């Protein structure tokens, strides 16, 4: 990316994938004109009318948009029908405030509360409130205005864009959305993804100049006044994206991926329960890796058994008959947790982390094992231990787990010992894989590559050396897969390699038939397997 | 699930099974359903100091009930018993589409 005479480029975060090439259209929040306040009665009446009008407008938008958009707008309608909220505003008018000021200050209070929430979901909802706030303020100021007209294929650039304004724009001719702020989890981002409108957020400051824009939702870039060469490269990327996208959606809905006549199981990795809300998650053959570290984050205390059980149970219920592999706490390394991990290790990646840490803190580990043992009776649960070096460690974990199950059962609580497997990420475990009495193996290619290549994966200076396709890494993957094939034990891979189409041919050739990827990568990976199966390249 | 506290007030407890807790869509469904009843209905996360009007979506959202928390419901008025039963059912059945 470079600025200068040839056209300037800006990088943000992807909110919706896709490409747009067209005129840049700037949208201001619209300060609007000043309003002359009337008497108390007039002000109360003005607000009542504005609320009714806004309610009607939103209902119309919802009716024409339908589906997910309608559900999103329903929240705004519910707020307008919230008597507690509205009464508070009328009370404020009664104290002498003009209608727009009373409305705005009450909504601003709510927005500030949402923004202060630790939860990213609640924070994102604040833009729905801002949307509603601005709509009613515009009506009160008499500048409700015409729906925004954008030229066909235009790239709309705004600070942030509320969901209702998004829906007022006619996107039938394409176009894209470039936001200086905004969030990938906002409602407008959900709408953009549902409509297939490319969207990049958090672009930061952009100069006021610029007539033509190239928006790349995949690379998360915005290029202004591009050179002919920039346009040519962009159009090429857009064309290949268009081709692959169309077939990926169709392929995703097919039952099972296969390669050379063998089924390839495609599972998903989840970081937290909410990840199951991804639209593509339903097409997965199961959950190949549920990380549990989210339970340790953002709380002053470690999570209790019930909290953990509820999280595991929610995922098992979602999965139904499909397998769910939950990984026990993988703290330590680059993931320190106060009150759990050890401080002051000179080399935490080679320190007390993963299962090593859990075995060193049996009182904390036992709480997780209890929750897992109870969850095991609720679905198709498998449990795996991270960062295992020796067979003894697996057996020590199994012993603790079995004791926990026995105690639960003695107390009359439904519990069972689930299938136990290990992550293969320490080179020693990969080399001595046959020494482990594991029900399954899951290759953690990120750590495996970092340990085999002796490269800290967070150190950018080593990027050229940090090649997961290095023959040494592939050799260990092959050995593990071969061991699984010989002994009838399933072997999957859940690292970043599985979600990288360029790595797929090598992984399949290593003998892997089970891969676990983020839900967002599922369509592309399924499509790539399909293409490789029919003799094509990675694309 | 339901117990009759006295002649007027009906109460219920139910675990919030929704995967992401009491967020926008569940909150909208809950308040919509609550508004179908004449009864005064209050809810709170078990043990919270304040009861919240079940018909106010802003307050239900602000309650920030997390996945797995227990929601307490109480209602008084002519159709209070039915209101508590309906809300318990809505939450226990994980806010099915078409409900509320």
Annotation keywords:
heterodimer; A: 539 residues; alpha/beta; Glucose Oxidase, domain 1; Enzyme I, Chain A, domain 2; TIM Barrel; 3 domains; nine-stranded mixed β-sheet; eight-stranded mixed β-sheet; 15% strand; globular; B: 100 residues; Histidine-containing Protein, Chain: A; five-stranded antiparallel β-sheet; 3 helices; 31% helix; 25% strand; disordered N terminus
The total of beta strands of chain A comes to 17
Shape of chain B: globular
Q: Beta fraction of the residues of chain A?
A: 5-15%
Write down the overall mean pLDDT of chain B: 85
Summarize the biggest pleated sheet of chain B.
5 strands, antiparallel
The CATH topology of the largest domain in chain A is given as TIM Barrel
Largest interface summary:
A-B, 30 and 22 residues
CATH C-level category of the largest domain in chain A: Alpha Beta
Q: Please tell me the CATH architecture of the largest domain in chain A by its name.
A: Alpha-Beta Barrel
Number of domains of chain B: 1
User: What's the tally of helices of chain A?
Assistant: 17
Total domain modules of chain A:
3
Keywords (chain B): Sugar transport, Transport
Domain HPr (chain B): 9-98
Pfam families (chain B): PTS-HPr
Organism (chain B): Bradyrhizobium macuxiense
């Amino acid at each position: 990316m470079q600025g200068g005479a040839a056209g300037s480029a800006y990088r943000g975060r992807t909110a919706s994938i896709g490409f747009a090439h067209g005129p840049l259209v700037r949208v201001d929040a619209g300060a609007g004109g000043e309003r002359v306040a009337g008497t108390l009665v007039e002000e109360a009446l003005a607000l009542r009318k504005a609320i009714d009008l806004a309610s009607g407008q939103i209902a119309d938008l919802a009716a024409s948009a339908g589906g997910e958009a309608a559900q999103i707008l329903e929240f705004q309608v519910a707020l307008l029908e919230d008597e507690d909220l509205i009464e508070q505003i009328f009370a404020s008018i009664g104290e002498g405030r003009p209608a727009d000021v009373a409305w705005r200050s009450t909504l601003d209070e709510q927005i500030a509360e949402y923004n202060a929430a630790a939860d990213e979901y609640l924070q994102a909802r604040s833009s729905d409130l801002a949307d509603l706030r601005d709509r009613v303020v515009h009506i009160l100021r008499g500048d409700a205005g015409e729906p925004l007209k954008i030229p066909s294929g235009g790239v709309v650039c705004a600070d942030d864009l509320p969901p209702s304004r998004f829906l007022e724009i006619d996107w039938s001719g394409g176009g894209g959305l470039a936001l200086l702020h905004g969030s990938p989890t906002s409602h407008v981002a959900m709408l953009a993804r549902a409509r297939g409108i490319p969207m990049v957020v958090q672009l930061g400051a952009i100069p006021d100049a610029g007539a033509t824009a190239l928006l790349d939702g995949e690379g998360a870039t915005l290029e202004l006044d591009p050179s002919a060469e920039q346009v040519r490269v962009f159009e090429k990327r857009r064309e290949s994206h268009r081709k692959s996208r169309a077939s990926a959606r169709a392929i995703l809905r097919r039952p099972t991926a296969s390669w050379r006549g063998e089924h390839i199981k495609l599972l998903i990795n989840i970081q937290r329960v909410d990840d199951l809300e991804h639209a593509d998650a339903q097409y997965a053959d199961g959950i190949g890796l549920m990380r549990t570290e989210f339970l340790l984050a953002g709380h002053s205390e470690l999570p209790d058994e019930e909290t953990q059980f509820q999280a595991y149970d929610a995922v098992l219920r979602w999965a139904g008959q499909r397998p769910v592999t939950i990984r026990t706490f993988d703290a330590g390394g680059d993931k320190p947790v106060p009150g759990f991990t050890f401080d002051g290790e000179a080399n935490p990646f080679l320190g007390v982390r993963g299962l090593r840490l859990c075995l060193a803190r049996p009182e904390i580990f036992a709480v997780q094992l209890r929750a897992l043992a109870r969850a095991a009776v609720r679905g198709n649960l498998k449990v795996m231990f991270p960062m295992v070096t020796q067979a003894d460690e697996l057996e020590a974990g199994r012993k603790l787990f079995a004791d926990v199950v026995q105690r639960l059962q003695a107390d009359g609580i439904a519990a069972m010992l689930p299938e136990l497997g290990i992550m293969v990420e320490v080179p020693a475990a990969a080399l001595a894989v046959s020494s482990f009495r594991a029900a399954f193996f899951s290759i953690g290619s990120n750590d495996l590559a970092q340990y085999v290549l002796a490269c800290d994966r967070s150190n950018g200076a080593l990027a050229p050396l940090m090649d997961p396709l290095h023959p040494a890494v592939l050799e260990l993957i092959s050995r593990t897969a071969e061991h699984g094939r010989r002994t009838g034990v399933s072997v999957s891979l859940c690292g970043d390699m599985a979600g990288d189409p360029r790595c797929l041919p090598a992984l399949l050739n290593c003998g892997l038939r089970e891969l676990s990827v983020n839900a967002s990568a599922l369509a592309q990976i399924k499509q790539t397997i399909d293409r490789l199966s029919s003799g094509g390249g990675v694309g | 699930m339901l117990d009759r506290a006295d002649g007027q007030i009906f109460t219920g407890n139910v675990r919030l099974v929704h995967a992401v807790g009491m967020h926008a869509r569940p909150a909208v469904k809950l308040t919509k359903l609550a508004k179908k009843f004449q009864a005064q209905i209050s809810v709170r996360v078990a043990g919270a100091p304040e009861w919240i009007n079940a018909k106010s979506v802003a307050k239900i959202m602000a309650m920030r009930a997390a996945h797995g928390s227990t929601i307490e419901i109480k209602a008084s008025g002519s159709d209070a018993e039915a209101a508590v039963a309906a809300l318990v059912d809505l939450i226990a059945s994980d806010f099915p589409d078409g409900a509320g």
